[in-house]
Every structure is written in C-alpha cells, then in structure tokens.
Amino acid sequence: MKTVAVTTSSDRASAAAIPFTFLGLQPMLLPCISVESAGASTLAAVREAAQDADLLVVSSPRTIDILWPDGSLPDVEFAVVGASSSRTVKDRGGRVAVTGARGSAQLAEILAPLVGDKHVVWPHADGADPAPLLKLSSSAARFTGQTIYTSVPIAPFPDPVDVISFASPSAVTGWQISRSLAEAAIAVIGATTRQAVIGAGATVAIVAPDPTFQSLAQAVSEYLGAAS
Predict the structure, then answer these.
(1) CA distances from residue 121 to 80, 103, 201 in whole angstroms, order as listed
(2) Mean pLDDT, rounded, for 161-171
(3) How far from 125 is each of 1, 66, 152, 189, 220, CA to CA, in Å?
(4) Which residues have a Cβ under 8 Å from the Cβ of 121 and sit 6 or more positions away?
C-alpha cells in the first residue's frame, strides 16, 4: 500500500486523510504547519465589519471556526471557496450565494462584476494569494480584507512516504525544516502551493483539479495507478 504524507495542521489532518483511505492509500499524518489566530481585538473588528457586509467571502472552513466558534454566523450572504466551506456555512445556518469550485482566483473572477455597489469582507490567512484580494478590493464599492490567522511552519516526523501532499506554501516550508522535497513525488492543492514547490527547486508531479483533499486524493490515486 502506497503511503501519502498529509502535511496540513494537526486539527485538520485526520479529516484530510479520509479521502486517501477510501481510495486504498495509506495516509501518514505529518503536520508541517501550526495555526496561530490573530488577536482578540482584530477578530472582534472583523466580526463587526462582517455584520455590516453585503457579502462575506470565506476561503476555508477555518475562517468560520476562528471567527464564529460558537456557530452563530452573521445574517449576510456568503461567497465561498470549495464544497467544504459551503457545507460549513450551510451547516451553521448561513446563506451561500456563490461557490467557487476552483479556488480563490476563480471566485474573485465570478464576483468582480457583481460587487460594484457592495461592501465585501474577506477574512483570510497571512500569505494568501494577493491577486484575488486585489481584484475584489478594486471592484467592490467598499472592501475589508483582514488577516485572521497565520500558518507557522513546523518540522514533520521522519516517517518514509511515497507521496508528499501539500495544501499550502507554509507546509512546503515546514517540510524543508527537517526533510527533502526530493525524497518522494509531490502532490499539491492550488497554484500558490505549486509555485512554492517550484520556487524551492522541486518538481510537482500531481496537481489537484479542484481545491479539496478529495480531489487531491483522487489525483494521487490516478498518478500512482499510472506509475505502477
């Protein structure tokens, strides 16, 4: 059985591993990032801005968990990246108006012509792709973009793997603290993560068609099947 390193943070790793298991792969939980939330005053300011928003953009379920851990979402329309973000919002009673299936860049392209008279709030991670943020900030009547968490690189354990899966540039950095990118095939979610691998001098073998671990697991399974 082929082993796949799941390098996302420890609070997300178990859920991220499930699609690999379903496809007959062996996920190895090797977190390469630790998530640090912004301070209480920053989070309070973002919650206040969200109450006044016409559209709240959510690019990952973690945004919801950090800002509204009790599940009480603001009564505004949401635009979300991916099925998991959409599910999280709907499960907590939120109204999803737009879903971007292929990442933040696609979602920004969809929203840009729709927000000329709107206040758009987009809480995001430190190091998020700036291009989608810039596109909406220049398209919306009013735009509030705020960093609400930082992914801090950490060193993974030395367990051997056949494939390394990355969902963020920070995880790429974390892996390199103690391990080499050359030791296994590399699979990624998203253009910014792919660029981080290339920028580190390594080759990306597998790119998920959609920004989900389900899509990544399917792409890894197909790659390993073709390679066997």
Answers:
(1) 12, 17, 36
(2) 96
(3) 35, 11, 11, 16, 26
(4) 46, 49, 50, 53, 55, 56, 57, 143, 144, 145, 146
What's the CATH fold of domain 3-32+154-227? Rossmann fold (3.40.50)
**Residue 104 burial (CB count, 10 A):** 26
Contact 120, 140 (CB under 8 A): yes
Q: What confidence score (pLDDT) does residue 212 get?
A: 87
Both structure tokens of 134: 């810039």
Work out whether the CA dihedral 96, 97, 101, 105 comes out positive or negative.
negative
Q: Under CATH, to which class is 36-150 assigned?
A: alpha beta
What average pLDDT does the chain have?
A: 94
Q: Does the reported pTM lie above 0.85?
A: no
Q: DSSP string covering 4-38, please? A: EEE-S-HHHHHHHHHHHHHTT-EEEE---EEEEEP
